[in-house]
Queue: 4 jobs
Job 1
Amino acid sequence: MESYKSEFIDFMVESDVLKFGDFTLKSGRKSPFFMNAGAYVTGSQLKRLGEYYAKAIHDNYGDDFDVLFGPAYKGIPLAVVTAIAYSELYGKEVRYCSDRKEAKDHGADKGGFLGSSLKDGDRVVMIEDVTTSGKSM
């Protein structure tokens, strides 16, 4: 296992994000652990979180993607901090975007997305805190 992966697990425990016990997930599944990314509340925690996500994305995709997509709501800050970290660690400017739960109908930036718009042919990496059933997609 790459060292950043075991460091990330330790970081989740230290940050009180990863809990162990008997949990029923939103999907109805039972789990011996629960991750609450909403417990990352400081700038330094978010900086480190973005670095871990950026390293994992780089290991899996290299630079072979165009946009980081973070679904509303918890995916939004994840996409932002990961785009910043990716730029700092790997020197590639990466766009990010998120969906809106409610479409914006006023101002210059109307529609269902915030951040970068998606273009035909974009290669998208989706960033989410936890995915169990895929229903949030």
Job 2
Amino acid sequence: MSMVDILRRRCSQRTFAPASLPLYQLSRLLWAAAGYNRPDHRTAPSAYNNQETDVYVALKEGLYCYDAGLNLLLNVNAEDIRHLTGTQDFVADAPVNLIFVADLARMQLVEPDEMLQMAAIAAGCMSQNVALMCAAEGLASVPRALIDRERLAAAMGLGLNQHILLAQSIGEPMPARANGAGA
């Protein structure tokens, strides 16, 4: 599939089938967001290559943090906090909710008043990479900013220098109803 075809398929979808994603597919999405595609550089840019933005993964089984260097999910806790990743009803049912968290302590050479803006740009690039990978693989996704950040940060155990920038819900698209008939 060409990049033009992938861009044509990319759209925000807010309904998801309940099935969990296979781990290989989740791994590909995380690599698209923050994986290394060359020595010490990731698939998405960051200011001065600070790599300040971490990707957390909220699943039914618990909360994880993606370790890009090892391409592993590190367990943070065993709680299902998907319902806290946004204010919309559908987030609790999405099989995967990614949470993009900037650690401002890692931002070298960036003026303090520019840190959140630079980190937000990096997170937007990461989220777009995920959206394009979802489009290529036939998955539904939607980036989101409507988040009770204080409540979610507390549930995640984030530190003072860590800031939630955005979240992204992902899953298999909900199958269309037979013959277009609604219930």
Job 3
Amino acid sequence: MQPSSPMEAPGTTEADARRNFRDQAGYCRELGSPFIAELCDLLGSRLDHSSRFGRRVLGWPGNARADALALRAAGAFNALARSEQVPALQEVYPPRHGDREALWHALARTIASHDAFLHDYLDSAPQTNEVRRSSALLGGGLIIAREFGLPLSLLEIGASAGLNLGFEHYRYELGTTAYGQAGSGVVIRSEWRGGAPELATPLAVVARRACDLNPLDAASDRDRQRVLSYIWPDQSARVETTEAAFDFAAGMPWRVERADAAAWVEACLAEPAEAGLTRVLMHSIMWQYMPETTKERIAGAMQKAGEAASLERPLAWLRMEADGGKEGAAVTLTTWPDGTEREIARADFHGRWVAWS
């Protein structure tokens, strides 16, 4: 995930900050996390200026929505809860249950006792590296492989710890069907609907690279704990899947490069395309966080590379991104040499389902 810079967005008023927490609470309820919804409701309505943490949240210098302010705050508390060093949080965090007032009392006590930690944890944007989004990437990869009949060379931007880079190695339980080795340590449960891609299509990935402005190392326990702090604690299956993906990725040779997405894509596409491979740029739920100039440069680089593509050296752009549609995110695929762009599916933001076109 590659966030935009807070300096590029207009400042947030206190009302904007509180609204972001209310809005995030609604999203959490829709996505099945009543606990984080309650936490966001409480922080949005009761947080005040008596702490450094509260003053920073309510006077956020950037754009609260673009900077995922509420999720930054929720991640800070979850990090402390996961550390098992804050008894007040242990008493109310899942799997335990407490009422609304008990939760607020625990949050207030934690703000008083760990103000500096909470304040500083807001520095970094959330990097959830949602592994179940691999369900949409797998389907897109199968479509690309079927169309061109060639192995894939993957380029991923906003890759965080690179947990989705090895998507073809995971086991997928897709409702009435399945894909991958039954013994895989990473099991993705995602319902496929509609005209799903052909699972029997040969899919080979022979090269993979990735970048992020703030890359995480899958082999680092500190980075692992950072990602897990942004996984909602009342969704234990997501936590378990993410932990398994970290275990897998830590043993793989690839790592995520530190780079600006536009400069990195331009440099990668400037390298000669290898005959007999389909180069694929992919990303998921990160486009909204990038400056418009960065988006324009990436689109321009893809168009330029697409003009030089051929059936022997095809190019594809696979992305799962929010588009303001009524349900989920759009899964869009553009392929060259013909430059055809189409929506191949819509997907739940956390990958719980993918509805294929």
Job 4
Amino acid sequence: MLLWCQGVWSLTKNIDTPAPSETPPSCGLKCIQQVTLATGLCPLNNRTCLCTNAQLNQQISLCVQSNCTVRDSLQVLRYSKHECGVPSRDRTALVWIISTVFLALGLLAFFLRVVSKLFMGGQTWGPDDWVMVLAVAIMIPLNGLSYPISRIALGKDIWNVQPNDITQFLYIFFWDELLYLGALPVTKISILLFYLKVFSKREIRLGCWILIGLNVAYFIVFELTCIFQCRPVEGAWRAWDGEFPAECNNINIQGWAAAVCNIVLDLATLVLPLRELYSLSLSLRKKIMVMMMFCVGFFVTIVSVVRLNSLATYATTNNVTQDYVEIGYWSTIEVPVGIICASMPAIHSLLSVVFPNVFGSTQRGGKSNYANLSEPTDPTSNPLKIPSKVSLKPAIRVQKEFFIKSGRRGDVSYTDHELLQIPFRDPNSRLSSEKKPTTPLESV
């Protein structure tokens, strides 16, 4: 993996945006001349007319597609855009800045989760945490590859990218797809394992195991489908120009299927514990905190839905390096936010220790805050609770011991006496008014 990452990084070096050609390829120049003369829509020396006449440009494009290779067509398009003064679009910074910001947020959430679990006490490191380690390990290269992929092509118009760089872009994008499809179910499995730790109700636990199985199936099915989207596999990044023989699936439908299934699993994971949480007798503050955690979870689902809009051009556009920008940055938002959502219970537990007045539990004791979510806080739940003897003792307990000695010089004898300790009196307590001697002090 390290060698592969070094290889990807080396691809980003010495990348030059091609300067517009002085003249287009011969096939393109021939189409421009023949179509312009045949239609008579514009004179050859009228650049303004040649650039603005939509009917003429459409017919020239059809001619170029029929008579030029894909690589030559891009060169013709680059020449025409330059001659007509069309500004180049560059959204490369948008790609890597968004990715870097959310990578940092995801890592921060995971760091706070680790601190809460390992150093604050009251919680144990469990299977959900190990699965989250795997999710973070996938998130790092997923978001980290946004920088080299934007340096190569993503965010630029395809006609301003060298053909070899397009191939390299599609190669990195192929790996990004695999990482994205792996991170989604792994994150949900971590959340479901956390549910198993918190909830003991049979129906919820059964639902958790069913959803874990479905997420494992999602991982296997869509990872394999993505790997073998083209036959041979390298056709996924080499068949774009039509010069590499490959047979590929309908990648657009494949992308939609993966996205829709992911949204369904997201909603099922969020809805599963709601009924149990609703039936708990929680204080208003706890209810608000629980709802905030679930709102973050619903935000992940909203991101998935918004990302669907970008799939309209997935594998169907002729300008992949520009039109895949939205797919790219929404994917690098969705995965870190999912990790943040899964880490929020542990983060809340940490904050309740650091800022007890704001995030602290209304209950005291050494139990984890997770357990407190299922404990009733209604004071009427135990109306006959009587203070224990321990609660009647003062905060500072003073104990005095005395001994009495008598005797004669030369013939010493001692007389021992037992002194009774008087219990502390609480004027507000009925029980404290009873004078009951405690165990006698040990005689000296």
